[in-house]
Every structure is written in C-alpha cells, then in structure tokens.
C-alpha cells in the first residue's frame, strides 16, 4: 500500500460517526472490494461485452446496430438522464463530513437543544461550501459570496444551519430574492458573465436598492476572494431564536470562526487561479483532509433576551445588519472539525439538500422577513431538484428514527410495514410525542396586527453599518475594496449604472466614492453625501481573526530546484516545514528526476523526483517559496524566463520567499526583487527583509560572481 493509502486508512479509523456508519449501509461498492467484480446490468445480469453494440454483420465487423440491444440501450438511457437541475443559486460547491461538539452546558440558560448543551455528544455534520453566482462548472476563486451550509445530524433530527461567509445579506425581505438573483446572474440577452458580478445588471440593481449597500461592501472586500474554504468565517445571517426550559425566548445569531484565521487571495492571484486551477478550493479542502490537517471552526452565539429586542438603533430582525460585538458579545460554546471527504461526489455533495426550516427542539425562528421567506423556499427547491422523497436520500436522512404517515411520491425508498397510514388510528401507530415530553413545540408568541405590505421603521436606514464596516477596515483592506469596486464598475458599460453607484458610495464614505469615481469615470463628489459617524470595531477586519500563534499548518510551500541544487538544504527545509505541518512541493525544470549538486546528470540513481514542472504549477498555487543554494542550479533558474516570472509574481503577491546562498544571489541579481536587503556573507546568518523575503547567507555570497547570473530576457 502506498504511503497515502496508509495515511488514509489511519485517518478513516478516526472519522467514523453515526452518519458515516449509516452511509456505509448504502456504499455497496467500497473501492477495495471492487477489484475483479463482475460487470452487470442494472437488473443484475452479468454481461460479457460492454464495448461493442450488437450489430448485424457479415463477418467483417461492420453493419447496422440493433435497437434490440437492451444492454446498450440501458447504458445510453442511464447516461442520458445523469443530470439533475443544478441549484438555482450556489450551484458550484464541495462538501465534507465532520463532527460538532460543545464544550459544556453553558447554553442551557438559553436553550434545551441537546446539540448545543450536551458536551458528551459528538454530532455528525456534513458541510457544503459554495459560490453563489456561477453555474456548476464555474471556477472556485471568483469574487463572490461563499455559502457555508451545515447539516447537523442530531439525536433529535437534522438541524440545517444554512449560512454564508458574510454576516449580512443584500436584501431585507425574501420577496426581493428573485430580483437580486436575476440581477447578479448572467444577463438574459446573452447569458454573460459567468461567475462574476461585474456587469451592468448587478450594479444597476444594487444602485437602486440601497439596502444592499452594506453587503456590497463585504462582497467587494477581501472576503469575496477567500484563500480557502478553511479560512473563512461562517454566519447563520438570519436571526433565529433559542428557548430554554423555563419557557424564555432569546434571539440568536450563529457564527463559525476558523482556527486558521481568515485569509484571502489577492485579486490578481484569484483571477489567474480561475484559469490555472478552477478547482483550487475543492482541491484545497481535499488536500487538507487527506493529509490529516483537519479544518476546524469555533462555534459562537450572540444572544439577545426577548425583552431587549428594541434596545438597538437598528432592527435586530434586519438581515442587512450585524450585531456589533461591543453591544452583543460573542460567546464561543463549541467547535466543528471536518475530517472526511466524500466517497462519491454526486450522491453526497450534489444530493445533499438543506432547509432553513429544519431546526430541532430548543431552536426556533424569528420574524426576520428574510428567514420567513427562506423557510418556504428551500423545501420547495429540493422538490424540484430531487423530488418529494429527497429526505430519504442517504446523505439527507437523519440518524435518529423517522416515522410518520407521509407516503408515496416518486422514488419512495422506505417500506413501512403498517396497515394504517393516518392518525389517529386503532393500532396506535405514529402517536405524537406527549406534551410533557420532548418533541418540537413552537414558542407561544403573541401575534396581533394588521395585514400590510410594509417594512419596519428601522429597516429604512441603509448606510450606518456600511460605513461602520468601511471604517473598520485596515488601510490595505480599504485599498483592496476601492480596487475591487473599480474593477467591477469598469466592466459596466452603461454610464447610468456607474454614475448611480458612485453617487451611492458617497453616502458611505467621501474618500471611497472619490477614489472609485475617479477610477471608473463616475460622478466625483465635491462633498460627503452624509457625515461619517466615525464608528468602527476591530471585529470586522479579517486581521482580527489571525490565529494567536502564527501557523504554517496546511500551507503549500514550493521549493524551486534545478540540476545542481543543494540536496542537504532541501532535506533540512522539508523536514523543518513538515514539523510545522506545511506541505512542500518540489518544482523543477521537468516532472521527473532532477540531479543534486555533486551527482552526474542522469546517473540513474541519485535523481530526486519533482512534483511539478514550473510551467505546470505557477506561484499562484502556493503560499510561500524557498530557493535553496547550488551554483549550477541558481544559474539555471536565472536562465529561465518562466522562473524569473514565477518568483517576481510570488513577490508581487506578497508571498513569503526564503533563499539560501546562491539562491539568494539569484534573487538579488536575476529576479531583482526591488527594495530588499539580502544576506551577503557567512556572518550575516539571516536577513529578514521587507515583504517577508528571508535570505540566509550560508556561504560567502561574495564568492559567487554575481554577473554570471543573467536574466533570460524572453519573459
Ligand atoms: Fe439561499 N437558497 N436563499 N441564502 N442559500 C438556496 O436552496 C433563498 C439566503 C444559501 O449548499 C437554494 O438548496 C431565498 C441567505 C446557501 O446546498 C434556494 C433567500 C443565505 C445555499 C435558496 C435566500 C443563503 C443556498 C438554492 C432569501 C445566507 C446553498 C438551492 C430570502 C444565510 C445550500 C437550494 C447548499 C441555497 C433560497 C437567502 C445561503 C433557492 C429565497 C440570507 C449556503 O432555495
């Protein structure tokens, strides 16, 4: 068995859960038992030939194909029907299994939900991450909101927490959802663009619907281009409720905070990765899980007692608003770890189906008008995607008993051996849980009023929190935000659109509006549209979430080598990075053997296998880069235009670059990274320069004739 096989087997042992055991009941063909198994039709008849359609032939092997070939017909018909409708939003995604735990029973003061209060439980979970705009085959690293949908298979039924990586939403009332989605999706005339919001219709809509201003700020910030699904926050967004055993009710918002911190790509990187590796985020999740670097999130709640509902200058049921943590502290009560990839994409990731209306006893809804609409929408969409029996699908079915009088419908799998299918019945089947026991019951909320199509007074204010978010960004984050909106508006060719939006921006911030308007030819303001309240919080900048101890865990680090590299250095670097749980990748002039210093080229014995050719994997796919010493190797790197571009591009994307000896000379003389100080002799062991360039002068660099390293001008 390969090393990877051994690791996989070891990891599998620790990733069993009730849900995995349940799925294994239908995993009829585990890979290790497939070898040598007989090919059959779907009705189980063994077949001899799956390569040739039955023909009438005179012996020459050609002739008309026969429709009577039921084996060929079955194969083609099954294939013709392989596709189901993709999700109308969030079509592109990936998923993984995991486990959720709470630390203690502190939340008992808010809720009776066992999943949130019983620390002896390990609740199996399935998480699906997604983008929103693009179709199923679109790229991962587009600028977009990311879906963060969690299914918790609790002992009292499934709880679906269907969130995003951004804590607010574009609209306040669910009735506007088709409008915002039509506006952001490819335009109706020509079905462009794909995986982008950079087009007239999106900016037209958000310019005319100012309640979206806050979310637009978030989506255009670095949150819109995460480095990894593992490095984003998750938010339930809507306001839910918790009920305790005393009959008290609390409003609640749910949060996921990644252990590794919140990190983003640079926009230039994101654009390039779309072409270089459109599955970048999918592969990233798989790589982390299969190497045992299990992604982890801390789970937090913000809680407001029912009596305090109206204490804030915003409406706590308005999904376009955050609850500032200074006003409503975040309580961390548990964590979720993802530890297992799926065995097959379609039956698990494509067929998993979430419903915001799926909550468990102790958790309820609020009058948040977005949530109320979502509770209708998700069930309906699953019927059209998967059919009415979608909850029987293996990935969706609960791990606790399911028993009721629902019957029939397309694709019914369950067989209930009962002569009655209604309640009440003479046999006492399907008896509802007695009132004094558990079971879901609605909070007895008093409701009275007038039927009207209206929104609350506090729902009318749209700019305070957009400004709050902008004020809370660091200067670098603000710069990225300006560039992002400028990129998007530059893709709008209707002046009405970019003029309207630049005017709207002036209600958020004068400096922001001025810079964007100058970039895109919009309306440059002469004075602020409204005063800036000046309020900010550290908790909205993604820097706030940096892990307490800096970590390189699961980061991808490239080591650039050519023939003549210093192998002892490479071994030492790899060992050191492995201790920090990073992965290292040798990138060379060819995928195959590269020969270290002191070994004859092609000696057939001492070559070291590289992972990739430097044309095959670009710097954008790595987090950091190391260049070892070795004079001949450094010369070869210097001679390659691609390598010089590789290194400069990594530098341009602010990646950490380390170099030793001749590797440092290469950086200085060939790649010519600007504004950097280098280690120059044995005595200056290590020089940490600006932009994270670290050079080590293990040798006297003066002995390496600098001018022997020349840049290949092709690049
Ligand atoms: Fe969704 N949303 N949504 N949404 N949403 C769907 O359900 C909808 C909203 C979110 O990985 C659909 O199964 C309405 C907010 C995620 O399978 C659909 C409204 C948030 C996913 C639907 C919203 C989300 C969806 C399409 C406005 C963040 C992917 C396929 C009231 C909290 C789940 C599907 C997955 C998917 C409707 C707003 C997150 C059509 C009507 C707010 C992560 O039912």
TrEMBL record:
Instruction: Provide the Catalase core domain boundaries.
Output: 40-431
Q: Please state what the protein is called.
A: Catalase
Please list the GO biological process terms of this entry. hydrogen peroxide catabolic process; response to oxidative stress
GO CC terms of this entry: cytosol
Q: Which organism is it from?
A: Cristinia sonorae
Give the family per the record. Answer: Belongs to the catalase family.
| Transmembrane portions of the chain | none
In this protein, the active site sits at 90, 164
Keywords associated with the record:
Heme, Hydrogen peroxide, Iron, Metal-binding, Oxidoreductase, Peroxidase
Pfam families named among the record's database cross-references: Catalase, Catalase-rel, DJ-1_PfpI
Q: What function does this protein fulfil?
A: Catalyzes the degradation of hydrogen peroxide (H(2)O(2)) generated by peroxisomal oxidases to water and oxygen, thereby protecting cells from the toxic effects of hydrogen peroxide.
**Catalysis performed (reactions):** 2 H2O2 = O2 + 2 H2O
Sites binding heme sit at: 378
EC primary class: oxidoreductase
This protein's cofactor list reads: heme
* Listed EC numbers: 1.11.1.6
- The source's domain of life comes to Eukaryota
GO MF annotation list: catalase activity; heme binding; metal ion binding
This protein's record includes keyword Iron? yes
